Amino acid sequence: MTATAETVNRGVQRLHAAFARAGAEGRAAFIPFMTGGYPDAGRFLDVAGELLSRADIMEVGIPYSDPLGDGPTIQRASEQALAGGTSTRRTLDLVRELRRKYDTPLVIMTYVNPIYAVGPAEFMRLAQAAGVDGLILPDLPPDQDLEIADLAAQHGLGVTFLIAPTSTPERVELVAGACTGFLYAASVTGVTGTREGSALGEVPRMLALARQHAQVPVVVGFGVKDAATARQVAQVADGVVVGSAFIGAVEAGQDVGALADEIAAGCRR
């Protein structure tokens, strides 16, 4: 495949346009997450559809057997999806099905091992064909990335890396400079999951530092669970990421659409 300027910029442009639309409407972008194939393929498509109809951008996680950055809720979802036969390729097939119905930007969140298991070039080809707009790579330090970011760009995918409250100023500068889709700031040190109390913590300080270097939107995740915590994050971030709360709602048989409406309302500034 020969990359064209249009191909190289496609996912990046779609992601940045979504943030721009939300900002023009006085909102932080609402970015829900759902593990691919959870609780099963059919129900995943239903739940993802409910989220996509309300989202500015949606993250789909590739289920993985050793998700070191995920808390117990997303770990359980990954285990159930894997037990039901959801593979990396199957997750991308499910994303392709979503793309047929929804134009909302779609981002894959994956650890690096599933990419290498498929083969980086083949993974990027499949992702592009499925209609993916970007990748979030929580365990790939950008200074150790030898090919994945370049391959993603060749296939029109924006790339996102993470920072945390423990990231040094030098690390924040490095990570911010490597992101082409958006920069993901974890609100706490540790794993994903809902928490008691404020969702902000060290976020304002971390975002002030990140914005000195980032040329892309900055989003915050980890710990956002309801309208109140979304509202806190929306005051300082360009986007609000919510994952464990939706998986927990599916586990409990609750109305995911109602929770999504509540949190999306909290993203207004």
UniProtKB/TrEMBL annotation:
- Give the matching Gene3D superfamilies: Aldolase class I (3.20.20.70)
Reaction equations catalysed: (1S,2R)-1-C-(indol-3-yl)glycerol 3-phosphate + L-serine = D-glyceraldehyde 3-phosphate + L-tryptophan + H2O
What are the recorded GO MF terms, alphabetically? Answer: tryptophan synthase activity
Q: One GO CC annotation, please?
A: cytosol
For this protein, the record's InterPro entries field holds: Aldolase_TIM, RibuloseP-bd_barrel, Trp_synthase_alpha_AS, Trp_synthase_suA
What this chain does, per the entry, is described as: The alpha subunit is responsible for the aldol cleavage of indoleglycerol phosphate to indole and glyceraldehyde 3-phosphate.
Q: Assembly state and interactors?
A: Tetramer of two alpha and two beta chains.
- Name-wise, this protein is Tryptophan synthase alpha chain
What species was this sequence derived from?
Deinococcus wulumuqiensis
